[in-house]
Amino acid sequence: MTMPLALTMGDPAGIGGELTLKAWLARRHAAPFVALDDPGRLQALARKLSLDVPIREVPTIDVAAGVFRDALPVFPVPLGTPPVPGTPDPANAAAVIASIEQATRLTLAGEAAAVVTNPIHKSTLYGVGFPHPGHTEFLAALTGTALPVMMLASPVLRVVPVTVHASLRRMLEMITVERIVAVCRVTDAALRAQWGIPAPRLALAGLNPHAGEDGTMGEEEILTIAPAIAQLRAEGIDAFGPFAADSMFTPTARAGYDVAMGMYHDQALIPLKTLDMAQGVNVTLGLPVVRTSPDHGTAFAIAGQGRADPSSLIAAIDLAADLASRKEATA
After folding, report:
1. What is the pTM of this model?
2. Known binder of ligand: residue 273?
3. How far apart are alpha carbons 29 and 130 in whole angstroms?
4. How many Cα atoms within 13 Å fall on the side-chain side of residue 145?
5. 121 annotated among ligand-binding-site residues
6. Range of the domain at 100
7. FRET pair for 164, CA 20 to 30 Å: which of 85, 187, 225, 268?
8. Is 291 annotated as a binding residue?
9. Residues 258, 261, 266, 272, Cα dihedral to 10°
């Protein structure tokens, strides 16, 4: 990989800054990255947590890789006000958004290899007029992507929710044959192109208990999910199911597929976070850029205390580097 990864700040009142510092300390095991952050706040945080991380502000991204061995390169994104750990401040919302925008712009321009995002606090952004449900939808808007798809991946499991940031009531309206087919197409294409899996196996979960029990516990499996599977198989995509969600994540079941397609957010994410929270990575499929993120939130309750575990961010950095390298080699 010839370019650094672009790492966003996340909410400065959360654990993102600490994770960034600790990821640099583990740099022998991570690809070079540049933090799009406020250098002063990272310096102050490193001193507070007694982390020996030299901070070096860089004027352009192209020098970051050369700096990375000896110091954490930071492309400056000034904050509106000094952050207070655990207390998100709307005065810093513009900087949080700008960090994501700049990371995406740099990656689209070919100056950065991929986008890696630290966790944001969505409600704080909503308070200043942020119109997107989360990172996934914002990145889609920034890149002109019609259908971004969220995948969470770890060494033991990959999952994709067909619907993401929607209430259960709204989710029921969103589960259609067309949406299931579209999300599965994006997933299948990404597994082929980015993961190098020549014939991905997509296992679809049912929506209802026992996958509907032949219609006695709900008809969505018969009327919606099964027709979607039939259409996908007619297109040459190895989709199968629907399976009862309470039994499709056992070790034996997981050996039979490459990705589990859940119908809604928690159905897909709870198994992965239970099995491998530390190594879980959020990947956005369907974008023209590689984007990964740790699979956890801002963790305000432990922010600024030196207790945050950087494992998921390091895994996100490693996966972004792998995917970006494969993309670069293919191009």
Report:
1. 0.91
2. yes
3. 35
4. 23
5. no
6. 1-145+290-331
7. 85
8. yes
9. 0
